[in-house]
Amino acid sequence: MSKNLMPSGGPGGAAADPIFSTVVAYPPIVLPAVTIAVMPAVTIAAMPNVTIAAMPNVTIAAMPDVQLVEPVDTRFDTTAAAQLTGAAINCTLVGDNILVAAIPATVIRIYRLIAVFATACTAIFYNGAAGTALTGAMSMSQYGSITLDFSGEPWFVTTAGNAFVIKLSAGIQVSGRIWYLP
Predict the structure, then answer these.
(1) Residue 11 phi/psi, 5° resolution?
(2) pLDDT beyond 70 at 132
(3) Is pLDDT of 158 > 80?
(4) What DSSP character marks residue 142?
(5) Which of 39, 56, 142, 154 has its CA 20 to 30 A from that of 30?
(6) Would you identify the CATH topology of the domain 75-181?
(7) What's the pLDDT score for residue 129?
(8) How much is the pLDDT for 155?
(9) Is residue 132 exposed (0-12), middle (13-18) or buried (19+ Cβ within 10 Å)?
(10) For residues 71 and 68, what is the distance between their CA atoms, to the nearest angstrom?
(11) Positive or negative CA dihedral for 155, 159, 160, 165?
C-alpha cells in the first residue's frame, strides 16, 4: 500500500504527485553584506577539501594575526629516511637466507624493501633463523616482487640480537634492496 505524503492539492494547488517527480525551482538566496571588523589570532591548519568557487562581493582587507600553518607529515620525515642503512638482497638458497645479520643486543627495524623473485616459490619473513614468522607463506610467481615503501613506521621489527631472514621454498634467485635501522 502506498501513501501520498504531499498535502492535498500539492504545491501551488497543483495535483499531488505520489512519486515526487515534479521539481520546484526556488530563487537563489541572497545574503546581506557582512562586515567582520576584528579576527584576532586566527590559525588555519589544514583545509584539504575546501573549494571557494565564486565570491564576487567578498573583500578581505587586513588580517594581521592570521597564520597559515602547513601541516607536517612526520611519516615522511626525510631525516629519518637519510639515517637508514641499505643493503643488497641476493638470495639463492632453499630455506633460511639472512637479509640483515644479527647484531648482539640490537633490534633491527625494516623500513623499506624491494625483492624480485626469478621463479615461483613460497617466501616467509622471520625474526631470526628458525625464529618467529613475521608473515604467513607468500606465494610468489615468476618475476613476482615485494615492495615495501618508506612510511615512517617500520614494516618489521626483530627482537634484540636476531637477524631478519627470508625463508624460501626453493633455491631460486631473489634480488633487490633492503633499508633498515639497527
Answers:
(1) -70, 135
(2) yes
(3) yes
(4) T
(5) 39
(6) Jelly Rolls (2.60.120)
(7) 87
(8) 97
(9) exposed
(10) 10
(11) negative
**Are 161 and 96 spatial neighbours (Cβ–Cβ below 8 Å)?**
no
Residues sharing a CB contact under 8 Å with residue 119, sequence separation 6 or more, in sequence order = 142, 170, 172, 173
Q: What is the pLDDT of residues 68-105, one digit of tens each?
A: 555 555 555 566 667 999 999 999 999 999 999 999 99
Instruction: Residue 168: count other Cβ atoms within 10 Å of its Cβ.
Output: 20
Place of cell 639472512: 98
* Amino acid sitting at position 102: A
DSSP assignment letter at 73: -
Residue 80 CB contacts under 8 Å (≥ 6 apart), including other chains: 152
Which grid cell is 12? 501551488
pLDDT at position 70 is: 59
Question: Which residue blocks in the chain are alpha helix, DSSP H?
Answer: 78-82
Give backbone dihedrals phi and psi of 122, rounded to 5 degrees, phi first.
-115, 135
